[in-house]
Structures are given as C-alpha cells and as structure tokens.
Amino acid sequence: MTTGWWTRRAFSCLTRVTMVRRVLRACAAAVVVLGIGLPVAGVTAAGDPVLVGAGDIATCGGSGDSATAALLAGIPGTVFTAGDNAYPDGSLSNYQDCYDPTWGAAFARTRPSLGNHEYATSGAAGYFAYFGSRGGSAGKGYYAYNLGTWRIYVLNSNCSRVGCGATSAQVRWLKADLAANPRRCILAYWHHPLFSSGFHGNIAAVRPFWDALYAARADVVINGHDHDYERFTRQTPSGSRSAHGIMEFVSGTGGAERRPFFTIRANSVSRSSTTFGVLKLTLHPGSYDWQFVPQAGMSFTDGGTGKACTHRA
Description:
This protein is of the alpha/beta class. It contains seven helices and 13 strands. The protein has a seven-stranded mixed beta sheet with strand order 4-5-6-7-9-8-10, with no helix packed on it. A six-stranded mixed beta sheet has the order 3-2-1-11-12-13, with helices on one face.
C-alpha cells in the first residue's frame, strides 16, 4: 500500500476522533446547562470526592502540560484550573492546539477559572468558546458548585475586567451565595494570589475575596499566577497566623515555564519551583487531605491533613 493510502487512513481516523470528542463535549455542556444529575466523569461514586489540578498550564511546544496531564489521567476526581490555561493569549486556537491535546482529555470533569492570559483575547472569548457554560457565564467567569459536602467557589481575579472591590457585583454575589448556602467546609480558587513568594508576589486587589471568605469561615484558597508551588499556613486576610484562618495554596505548576522564588513571605511553610505537578485534595465531610503530586521522575512533594472544618455548626 502506498504512503498516500496510509496518510488518508490516518487523517480519517483523526477526523473521527475529533468528531467524537466534540459530541462528548456538547453532551457535557448540555448536562451543565440543564442541571441533569448525571455523575461527572472520573468522579468515583464511593468515597469522598477529590479535587485535583493546577494553574498556568498549556504551551504549544512545551512538555510540562503533557507531564501533568499524565498525572490527571491517574487521579479520578473533579479537575480545577487556576487560570492561564492556554498560552500565549488564551485564544480559541491556543485552547484547541495547546490545551486540548493534553488537559483536554479531562474536559468532561473540569471546572475551570480564568487567568490574565485569557484576557489577551478580547473578553476572554477563547476561554468561553472552549469551555462554554462550564466556565461560568460569559462576561463574568465566576460561579459556585457543590462537591460532596463542600461548597466550591470559582472566582475571577481579573479585577480590571470584572471588578473585585468590596462593592463589586462579583463580591456582592459571593457574599450572597455564602449566606444562602452555608457549609461546614468551603473552598475557593482563582488565579491571582493574595500571598505569594513568587515572581509576581502579593496581589492586594483580591483582598475583598479573602475578607468575604474569611468572614464566612472558609477553609482553603487555591491560586496560580506564579509558576511554582507554595503553601501558606492558616492566616487571616491581613496575613496574621491564626488557627481559624484560611490555608492558601499557590499551584502554578501545570506546565508553563517554572520561575524562581523572590521575597519569601511570612507564613510560607512549603514551596518548590523545581517541578511541574498537580495539587490533589480529598474533601471529607469535616476535614481535607492535600498532596502535591510531582511529575514523573521528580521527588518533591507536600502533603497532610487540614484541620477539621469546625467553623460552622
């Protein structure tokens, strides 16, 4: 058989695979829109739910996102993204050509968030076109969902685009939802960290998120933006160590180039800028376990059990 025959066969197979993936995505989007109570792919019915992911993910030509996608493939659960999902500008072609071949395999179980690179494309149009309603309402990009007994908040920290101030529509929505959906355990994720020892450092603009979450006695915040892994012990929005504070994770290790640490901030207790990896959290009814899972061949890890979520009755 000729080379041309094999080429035509390969192209035909790839076309069929692409069509199947598009159909599956359309079905997944319909489930979200219609609120159909179907199980999310990859989430086991037995046992406590798992939330796993990272931020700062896919670059065409890089290999870090392939390494972390391989980790996701072996970890059942709901996948989060902490923004800057597709480089360089979050366009639909960036998502299709860079993100989709790796993290796209977990599309049906992914609950994404927006980073600043998404807005390099006007209105973050590439993000909303790729994820559809799964990524929150277009023009907003913030939403909430339940995972087991936990309430999960996905916020948009691109403050110049959607507003993050104490009186902004986003923070008013957050406060209202916290009041309407009281939970013993609360977790939130978005892109820009309030506390970070990395290249960008502390981002004060997201302080109103922390104020609202701390007032509701939230437990965990996950961010990206700095291309490293860092964990902060429980602290208040002002940065004071407190047994009743929030534990923050920076998990910008999804695959974009790694960067070194700069000024080490108070209450930073674990960090690495030497490996890609994903953050895995197992969400129990009254506590949580965390584990940083490094790419194959790397040894750094961080793990433990969070203080029981005893803040709410």
